[in-house]
Write a structure and sequence with these properties.
Length: about 325
């Protein structure tokens, strides 16, 4: 079964069933929770203004908590290398071991501005941008692959990031622009814009490469070529977080009106409202319909247990490092 997770400045993370009912609330963070991410074992990672990253067990209890080098702004789990990337204030990107929480390295952009979200591609390259319109691609070893300074028409902040399954890199800005960037050098391949100028807070993508945008005034769907498909303006506050949930083909949009709205991904029609937060919703993620083996680069056998639900996978699917797993998610060896 799939779930949706929302983070808020009410200092909580909520687990939400697809029918809109609440599964649990995680209350350990001491301050605003800015973002959440889901990992292949069913754990949820959250970061925020408390300078701490938490790993939440599938039942909602805390597994571990580690200090961040700076306040966390965005978090992403790289399934292929089982690593966590955290975008932080003061131009810091940090990589952690996803099982232990041990810090592996810190990358500093050097400009002293704040990174926002982080996107990670299927090649484990991380993409971040700061408040001076500087963007960076960082390899899995912490080395800089490229950096680029962009000229924006109004704002300066590189905000939401998403990398699709076929390694197309998209980012948003605080002047309402959307860009597709060349992953090899950061050059701009194409651009688009949202319906009304204003901050692009968050991006997500579906398996077909369509882009979903949480923007100040709207939630929007765009094609891979950044053509607008639909616009939803049903929130009374800023549209600040978004996730695409693949089981039902739905988009979940969080806002500063303390609500999460479930939308039909094809039409943008409103399906339900979750209103159990007492603060602004700033981050969202969802669990996948099935384990995406192409992202993990592993051999699988039998079934993988993910948060209490077993997902069948093909026998001996091979891609990359030949990492072997059996039922229950136990790693038994590599070759």
């Amino acid at each position: 079964m799939s779930y949706v997770f929302s983070a808020s400045n009410d200092e909580t993370v909520h687990k939400i069933a697809l029918d809109g009912t609440q599964e649990w609330i995680f209350t350990d963070p001491p301050d605003w929770v800015r973002d959440v991410a889901y990992d292949p074992y069913g754990y949820v990672l959250c970061v925020g203004r408390g300078d701490i990253m938490y790993r939440i067990e599938p039942d909602g209890d805390s597994d571990w908590a580690v200090d961040l080098p700076e306040r966390g702004q965005g978090v992403h789990v790289d399934w292929r290398n089982y690593a966590i990337y955290v975008a932080c204030e003061n131009d810091v990107l940090a990589k952690f071991d996803a099982e232990t929480g041990n810090l592996e390295w810190e990358f500093n952009g050097g400009e002293g501005e704040d990174f926002d979200r982080v996107g990670v591609g299927p090649d484990s390259v991380a993409y971040v941008g700061d408040e001076d319109a500087n963007a960076y691609a960082v390899g899995s070893d912490g080395s800089e692959i490229w950096s680029e300074a962009y000229s924006l028409t109004f704002g300066t902040h590189m905000t939401g990031w998403v990398v699709t399954k076929d390694n197309r890199v998209y980012c948003g800005t605080n002047d309402g622009d959307l860009f597709e960037l060349d992953p090899s050098d950061g050059s701009q391949l194409q651009s688009g814009s949202v319906d009304v100028n204003g901050d692009v807070y968050d991006l997500d993508a579906d398996d077909e490469g369509n882009i979903y945008v949480a923007q100040w005034y709207r939630t929007e769907k765009h094609t891979p070529d950044l053509d607008q498909v639909w616009v939803y303006d049903g929130h009374s506050g800023r549209h600040s977080a978004i996730t695409y949930e693949p089981t039902e083909g739905a988009v979940w949009s969080g806002s500063w009106s303390e609500e999460v709205h479930k939308l039909d991904a094809e039409t943008g029609d409103h399906l339900l409202t979750y209103d159990e937060h007492s603060g602004n919703v700033g981050g969202m993620t969802s669990s996948p319909a099935e384990i995406p083996v192409e992202f993990v680069g592993s051999v699988y056998w039998g079934q993988i247990n993910n948060g209490g639900s077993e997902f069948p996978v093909p026998d001996f699917v091979q891609d990359g490092d030949l990492l072997v797993w059996i039922g229950g998610g136990d790693r038994i060896g590599t070759s």
